[in-house]
Amino acid sequence: MRTPRAAATIAVASTILISLLGTAAPAHAAGSSGNLILIGGALNENAQILQRIVADADPDGSGPARARIAIVTAASAPAANATEAADPNASNAAANGLYYADLFQRFGADTYRVPIDVATNYSGDPYVPSNAFSTAVADQVRASTGVFLSGGDQSRYVATLMQCAPASGNAYTSCTDTPVLGAIRSVLNGGGVIAGSSAGLTIQNGAAMVTGGESYEAWRYGAYAGTGVGSKDLTYSPFGGFGFFTEGLLDSHFGTWGRQARMIALADHVGRDLVVGVDETTALVYDRATRQGTVIGANGVSVLDLYGADIVGTRAEGVRWHYLVNGDRIDFGTLAVTAGATKRTGAGTGSGPAVKRDIWDSPSGSGGTSSMVIQAKALVKSSASVAQGTTWERRPTYRTYLDRVSGTRWWSTGGFEGLEVSFIPE
Question: pLDDT at position 229, please?
């Protein structure tokens, strides 16, 4: 059962988190400088997000200086040969560096391609793991006003930019910065911006960073420390990622790929009360000094609050879901939501949505996306008080209940707060 924890329990959890992070920093980044721009994946050259990255990296606004963005693509697979590395339309670390350098230059920034990936595959390959320890590369990063972390696999960022004590199954509990990661950290601490998409978002997490898995398997089998390459089981790194964002657990492609259930399962497993999930083509802009988050882009950001929720085994009740859209803001100190449109209380009009099969958007299922988000939006603007959905998988089937409660609010632009989420096996 998950209930509000006593102060002593919170103090113990904070001590564990501090130990895992290897620092005496608080569990959040209040008072720190710099912005994070957390992109849920599928950037799709969204002009609003790209302009915000460049603007936040601009050292003097409209003055003569220009933003200088270091582009880190080490989460991508290494190029197999020089031809693939030189093709900006290919998908590998070097090619992705070319693509993003051109993209940010089109939006008015200077760029530096950070030549690091997980392997050296051909003679003359400039993208090599050892560059993470290069003073020259670290100096180039440190001279930048912003850093962009591209997508791929967040475990590759751990392998290339962190030094971790060996652990069975890569269930790391002790890691330190390489010189290049130290330089990235100095850009942020100096007031710069760190932006990341997909894996580049997830790696900014603190302790208990998700490394893989699907929602159904998370509830049927539980969570495991380590990396489960090729498995649908829910896995996580105890030490976590770079530790730039520690308000809650982070996840990308969130509502788009139906990841709400997997992250509720992980948060309960590791004893965390907050999950922040960002949809595709959407970003959460997080000001570390004020702990304020602002949503920009095409879709939404979910904040799942487990504080006071009742979770027993394979059953969950009472998780509160806030869903913020473009222009909405949240104060992570209080979880107060400021909507970009007028909030409404009570029911809307029309009947509620029918029961949705495959509400967790299983990769083995109907091929749908954003099913739980769609169901929730349909509920709050209807006259109904509850909406339901079931998993694609059977034996057991998990039934999702979305309940309108006294604290539920919604607004015309598609956002809502205080919707209650429950998962019941049957």
Answer: 73
- Note if the bond before 4 is cis, omega within 30 degrees: no
Checking if the pLDDT of 30 tops 70, the result is: no
Q: Are 327 and 340 in contact (CB under 8 A)?
A: yes
Residue in this structure with the two tokens 């290897």, named with its chain if needed:
22
Strand order in the sheet with 68-72: 110-114, 68-72, 146-149, 193-197, 35-39, 282-287, 292-297, 329-331, 336-338
Task: Write the DSSP string, 284-305.
Answer: EEEETTTTEEEEEESSEEEEEE
Q: Which long-range contacts (CB under 8 A, 24 or more apart) does 54-60 make?
A: 54/104, 54/107, 54/108, 54/109, 54/146, 56/146, 56/193, 56/285, 57/109, 57/144, 57/145, 57/146, 57/192, 57/193, 58/145, 59/145
- Per DSSP bridges, beta strands 315-325 and 300-305 are antiparallel
User: Nearest 5°: CA angle at 378, between 375 and 381?
Assistant: 145
**H-state helical runs in 173-223:** 179-189, 199-202, 215-221
Distance CA 307, CA 84 (A): 48
- Per-residue pLDDT band for 228 (boundaries 50, 70, 90) equals confident
- Total-model pTM: 0.93
- How many residues can be counted in the chain? 426
CA dist 282 and 279 (Å) reads 6
In three-state secondary structure terms, 189 is helix
Q: What is the DSSP letter of 355?
A: P
Start-to-end Cα distance in the chain: 19
CA distance 198 to 146: 17
Distance between CA atoms of residues 195 and 56, nearest Å: 10
By the 8 A CB rule, do 240 and 192 touch?
Answer: no
**CA atoms within a 13 Å half-sphere pointing along the CA-CB vector of 314:** 16
Per-residue model confidence as pLDDT tens digits over 180-211:
999 999 999 999 999 999 999 999 999 999 99
Whether pLDDT at 69 is above 90: yes
401-412 pLDDT per residue, tens: 999 999 999 999
Running DSSP on this structure, what letter comes out for residue 393?
Answer: S
Phi and psi at 314, nearest 5°, equal: -100, 20
How many DSSP H helices and E strands does the chain contain? Answer: 11, 25
